[in-house]
Design brief:
Structural class: alpha/beta
CATH superfamily: Spore Coat Polysaccharide Biosynthesis Protein SpsA, Chain A
Order of helices and strands: EEEHEHEHEHEEEEHEH
CATH topology: Spore Coat Polysaccharide Biosynthesis Protein SpsA, Chain A
Strand content: 15-25%
CATH class: Alpha Beta
Largest sheet: 4 strands, mixed
Number of strands: 11
Radius of gyration: 20 Å
CATH architecture: Alpha-Beta Complex
Helix content: 25-40%
Number of domains: 1
Length: 232
């Protein structure tokens, strides 16, 4: 399931912004297709324009109600609505806000979810840097020598490039508790630096453009180093 709300607060019509010549949502459609792990791919939006895009790329379209496409809409409600209307074993949320996520990583995360027998999963980025929370040291200690970053316990930052749930347990939990994003046997899968870049602003789009351009030009080239041959 690829969610695509027409409106967005920080970047207007974000899912239609062109990145490398294609709308942002098309990158999610293509990575879902090339991953080869999905029986069905469904674009989920309140706007018919995404239905036209879905048909163009030979995937399904589900038109959700307008009240499920506001700035106040919660992800739990979007998933529950989708689950009601689509009988399936597992629902995977493929997020258009992570356009650099490689297809092999999608395959790896979904395979892990199934292999581990999970009920819910969210992708994360492991960060080994000194972090504070609420003004307090989170993964390092004050009053001693400054720890090397490689010795720090990793902090897991949510990426949301992929989220997934077993449909029937999700629905049962939602109906019982009113929420179900992380429930039961839940897991967190660390993804790559590319997947962790989340598009929220125009600056994020520009960064993605530069990365894609650089990858296209430099793919396969070895790193070069400053020469020490003339050192005196």
């Amino acid at each position: 399931m690829i969610p695509a709300r027409l409106g967005s607060e920080r970047l207007a019509k974000k899912n239609l912004v062109l990145l490398a010549g294609e709308p942002l949502i098309v990158h999610a459609i293509k990575v879902a297709q090339t991953s080869g792990v999905f029986d069905r791919i469904v674009v989920n939006s309140e706007s018919g324009i995404f239905g036209r895009i879905a048909r163009q790329y030979d995937v399904e379209f589900y038109k959700r109600a307008e009240h499920l496409a506001t700035a106040d809409t919660q992800s739990d409600d979007v998933v529950y609505d989708f689950a009601i209307h689509h009988a399936t074993d597992v629902i995977v949320w493929v997020n258009p806000t992570s356009p650099l996520q490689p297809h092999h990583e999608v395959r790896e995360v979904v395979s892990y979810f199934v292999r581990a027998g999970l009920d819910s999963l969210v992708t994360v980025k492991e960060e080994r840097v000194h972090c504070n929370f609420g003004g307090e040291a989170l993964n390092y200690k004050l009053g001693e020598k400054f720890a090397k970053t490689q010795d720090l316990e990793a902090v897991q930052r949510f990426v949301y490039s992929l989220m997934m749930w077993r449909r029937d347990p999700f629905m049962a939990e939602y109906e019982r508790q009113g929420h179900a994003m992380l429930f039961g046997r839940s897991g967190f899968y660390p993804v790559s630096q590319l997947s962790s870049l989340i598009v929220k602003t125009e600056e994020d789009i520009r960064i993605c453009e530069h990365i894609l351009s650089g990858l296209a030009q430099k793919r396969g080239e070895p790193l070069t180093y400053f020469s020490l041959s003339d050192e005196r």
